[in-house]
Design a protein that fits this description.
With 333 residues, this protein is of the alpha/beta class. 35% of the residues lie in helices and 17% in strands. It has helices at 3-12, 34-44, 59-65, 71-80, 97-100, 114-123, 143-150, 189-198, 238-251, 280-297, 313-325, and strands spanning 17-19, 26-30, 53-55, 85-90, 105-109, 127-128, 155-156, 169-173, 178-183, 204-205, 228-231, 255-256, 259-260, 271-273, 301-305, 328-330. Strands 7-1-2-6-3-5-4-8-9-10 form a 10-stranded mixed β-sheet, with helices on both faces. Bound molecules: threonylcarbamoyladenylate and magnesium ion.
């Protein structure tokens, strides 16, 4: 059977399916089936306080998910959709509380991927879809990653590796024209600024004041199956690494905000070093896959030594993921 036909049939029977997007693979369910939506949380072992992103076929479908549409959303959706920008605004009555974790807002995006769009077109209902991985773990950028994560429990639509490789930029747009980035992504604040200014839109950036506005932001996330550390010290030796990690990691709690911290199970001898591509777009595309492949080789420790300058805005979103994936960061020796 055609993959899309099979996926639609599963979705229509209150099931979940994994599908590719340009960012990462999503685990989707119809937004009009609370039974299916709950299966997303069960499958991922995700806590109910973390809201899901809704994927729609086009702008007109997006408008139905929100209570009101405004000129900020109009301009940004024209520029960035289909694409890796999620807009968070007040939800309409078609959006279940299971999706929003009880919040009155919802995050919506149009994915830039032929298969995702074909699926949405055929199922004819928006799909809520978080990344298709166990809660707190590394996001999947290949069909095989999802299969490794969930085995035969989840039907996965096969495709090529995701083009962008990290999750969408999440932007909160309030009715009073205040906007905030809730999650950094490949679409940067500068790009959003540029589009809004070019269109002479009235808006203001504000920091998120209330933690409730930004759920799902834990200190740790995206964690691989092996202990991963970041060293800011360029000259660190394997011996120093082993000593510092063995000592400090034991002092850390086993779990932080519900996410298990990976710790070495035996004395550290086999250390693998992670290398980032020079180009941030390529690095973004590769990081999750690198974390997964390294985990399969089972070193005692994976280490990223920060040798270059990663202070540009594009690198920010990549570093955000890597810092959260790391069990610890070594500042100096
Ligand atoms: O690129 C992506 O966005 C991927 C693909 C599959 O589209 N999806 C994704 O979903 O990353 P997920 O569930 O892993 O991330 C959802 C995050 C939440 O943890 C939260 O930070 C934010 O999006 N979010 C969703 N709805 C929100 C809301 N109503 N208010 C504030 N933040 C929200
Ligand atoms: Mg995720």
């Amino acid at each position: 059977m055609d993959q899309i036909v099979e996926a639609v049939s599963i979705l229509n029977q209150n099931g979940v399916v994994a599908f590719p997007t340009e960012t990462v693979y999503g685990l989707g369910a119809r937004i009009d089936s609370d039974v299916a939506l709950r299966k997303i949380f069960e499958t991922k072992q995700r806590p109910f306080f973390d809201p899901l992103i809704v994927h729609v076929f086009d702008v007109s479908e997006a408008k139905k998910c929100f209570k009101k549409w405004n000129e900020i959303a109009e301009v940004l959706s024209k520029k960035f959709w289909p694409g890796p920008l999620t807009l968070v605004m007040e939800k309409s009555e078609i959006i279940s509380d299971v999706i929003t974790s009880g919040l009155t807002s919802v995050g919506v995006r149009v994915p830039h991927h032929e298969i995702a769009l074909k699926l949405l077109e055929n199922v004819k209902v928006p799909l809520a879809a978080p990344s298709a991985n166990l809660f707190g773990k590394t996001s999947p950028t290949q069909a095989q990653h999802v299969r490794t994560e969930f085995g035969n429990h989840v039907f996965v639509i096969d495709s090529t590796p995701c083009e962008i490789g990290i999750e969408s930029t999440v932007l909160l747009v309030r009715e009073n024209k205040e906007i905030s980035i809730l999650r950094k992504g490949i679409i940067t604040k500068t790009e959003v600024d540029q589009v809004l200014k070019d269109n002479k839109i009235d808006y203001r950036w504000v920091e998120v004041k209330d933690k409730k506005e930004s759920p799902g932001h834990m200190k740790h996330h995206y964690m691989p199956d092996i202990p991963f550390v970041i060293s800011k010290n360029h000259q660190i030796t394997v011996k120093q690494l082993a000593e510092i990690v063995s000592k400090k990691i034991l002092e850390m709690p086993d779990e932080i905000e519900g996410i298990k911290i990976k710790k070495p199970l035996k004395p550290i001898s086999k250390v693998e070093f992670m290398r980032l591509a020079k180009d941030p777009n390529q690095a973004a595309r590769e990081i999750y896959s690198q974390l997964r492949t390294a985990s399969e080789r089972k070193p005692d420790l994976l280490c990223l030594v920060l040798i270059d300058d990663y202070s540009s805005e594009k690198w920010d979103s990549i570093m955000d993921r890597l810092y959260k994936a790391a069990s610890m960061v070594i500042e100096s020796c």
